[in-house]
Amino acid sequence: MAKRNQTSERSAKKPAVVSLFSGAGGLDLGLEAAGYAIRLCVENDADARETLRKNRPGWKLAEPGDIHRADPETFTSQAGLARGEVALLAGGPPCQPFSKSAYWSNGGSRGLKDPRSKTLHAFLDFVEVALPQVLLLENVKALASNGTDEALRLFQNELRRINRRHKTSYSLQAIILNAADYGVPQIRERVFLLASIDGQTISLPPATHGDANGLERFRTCWDAIGDLDVADWPEELNPTGKWAGLLRSIPEGQNYLWHTPRGPGEPLFGWRTRYWSFLLKLAKDQPSWTIQADPGPATGPFHWTSRLLSIEEMARLQTFPSGYRIEGGRRSGHRQVGNAVPCALGELLGLEIRRQLFRERVRHCLHLIPAQRNDCPARERRGKVPESYLAFRAKHKDHPGTGKGPAARARERAQRTA
User: Fold this and answer.
1) One of 41, 95, 221, 343 is an active-site residue; which one?
2) pTM reported for the whole predicted model
3) 7-213+341-357 belongs to which homologous superfamily?
4) Which of 24-28, 89-93, 116-120, 268-272 has the lowest average pLDDT?
5) Contact (Cβ atoms closer than 8 angstroms) between residue 116 and residue 150
6) Is position 376 annotated as part of the catalytic site?
7) How many secondary structure helices (H) and strands (E) does the chain include?
8) pLDDT tens track for 83-122
9) Which of 1, 8, 2, 18 is nearest to 359 (CA)?
10) Which end of the chain, N or C, is less packed with Cβ atoms under 10 Å?
11) Are 306 and 254 in contact (CB under 8 A)?
């Protein structure tokens, strides 16, 4: 394939994107903001499809939405693109087989042995048929750092086979980003796998936001959702479950560790014996903790007023454009937003691909990050521990250490019986 490095050729027409596993459109919205044309979205979830249909009626939805029910030629035909005409093939396959939560809840991740990982093969099948100029795949950080690197090896091996068969030069690049470093009001680490048809790679710009001199300050929860802070909220945002009443006794930005023998609160739990997001709260003057897709009743982040976040607030923290509506009920909406790529990260990578791989002149600033606010109020006052929880006071033991906890022992047992 000839390199597309002439500015006049690229600037006359927006680069064409085919989006796989589009979800609510987080990555695609970022690419749209970076100047791309979304030609086709392949998404199977009915509510996510409705979200895309209602917010972006000009984007074409693939039929069928299930990537496993049609061959890649069907989808490229629907996009109206021939082989080699896809400028960017982008997507975020389901991450559950490689997530930290799989290690915690199941005593280990099955990775490529998990049936859900067939989505990685589907993505690669599409690469071979479309031969995109660039491919971009997003997933949880553990995809590239779970100790086995099996997914990376799968991609590298398959791209080598594609190169041999089609005389291409795809070379895989793994990029790990923390969204907060680029102005997203959320601490969210993700890996992006990128490959260009001619073997080029990109160099990411340095962080633009942080605590160091010369950087803009991190964008905060207050920057993103301060205007939505109200004294009254819908009943559905009241927390439920065994530990709901304990939230008010935990300060902004803290979690259950506050109430451990090493913390300043009551000794209600052992140190590091629960998952990090257990009773985790936002702080107004800091970026959000990672928004999760399928949390339990005690899983944060919770609002600093000790309630659940609204879908609109979560979408703001993921840098969805103002006014973008997530369709479906609360559970579906939470899953759609939690699974999304922060839109501003899609914008960042889209601009860098245009600048470095397509040789275009593009802006450096991101349009999708929130503006700074200078009216952040003081932190909320912490409440007392309700009497009912004081029965849990005890000399709780700390977690025994890396590789010695119940999840690690479960993994060992699973490996012995495999």
Assistant:
1) 95
2) 0.91
3) Vaccinia Virus protein VP39 (3.40.50.150)
4) 116-120
5) no
6) no
7) 12, 6
8) 999 999 999 888 555 544 444 444 444 444 555 568 999 9
9) 8
10) C
11) no
